[in-house]
């Protein structure tokens, strides 16, 4: 079993009955499926840009570049600032 990273879509395509896609499509009316967490993060941030009152996005300072870049690309042409916070005992 692979943990983390990208999962091959072909492994999950055309599954019937007991698949996660079938469960989600029956339980929720409005949903989107993404190929990766990076794509989902990018889409989420792009949708937030249009909302009023969003001035800053805070992300942990230890975040890896593969998560940072989609966020940066999504906000680079907006007025939203990307701010990093350090982790401490209080998170």
Mean pLDDT: 78
Give the strand line-up of the largest sheet. Answer: 1-2
Q: How many strand segments?
A: 2
**Biggest sheet record:** 2 strands, parallel
What's the total helix number?
3
Question: Unreliable stretches, pLDDT < 50, 5 or more residues?
Answer: none
N- to C-terminal distance? 31 Å
Strand content: 5-15%
Rg for CA atoms = 17 Å
- Which sequence of SSEs, written as H and E, runs from N to C? HHEHE
Count of distinct structural domains: 1
Overall SS class: alpha+beta
Shape: extended
Helix content: 25-40%
Summarize the structure in short.
With 91 residues, the chain is an alpha+beta fold. Helices cover 35% and strands 11% of the residues. The protein contains 3 helices and 2 strands, in the order ααβαβ.
Question: Could you describe the 3D structure shown?
Answer:
- The chain has 91 residues and is α+β, with helices and mostly antiparallel strands.
- It has one domain.
- Helices cover 35% and strands 11% of the residues.
- It contains three helices and two strands, in the order ααβαβ.
- The chain has helices at residues 20-27, 37-49, 65-75, and strands spanning 56-60, 81-85.
- A two-stranded parallel ribbon has the order 1-2.
- The radius of gyration is 17 Å and the shape is extended.
- The two termini are 31 Å apart.
Q: Key features?
A:
extended; two-stranded parallel ribbon; alpha+beta; 91 residues
Question: What are the SSEs and their pairings?
Answer:
Blueprint: H1 20-27, H2 37-49, E1 56-60, H3 65-75, E2 81-85
Parallel strand pairs: 1-2
Helix pairs in contact: 2-3
């Amino acid at each position: 079993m692979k943990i983390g990273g990208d999962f091959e879509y072909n492994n999950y395509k055309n599954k019937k009955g007991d698949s996660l896609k079938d469960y989600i499509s029956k339980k929720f009316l409005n949903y989107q499926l993404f190929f990766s967490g990076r794509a989902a993060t990018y889409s989420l941030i792009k949708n937030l840009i249009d909302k009023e009152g969003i001035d800053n996005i805070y992300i942990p300072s230890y975040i890896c570049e593969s998560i940072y870049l989609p966020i940066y690309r999504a906000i680079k042409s907006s007025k939203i600032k990307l701010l990093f916070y350090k982790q401490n005992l209080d998170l």
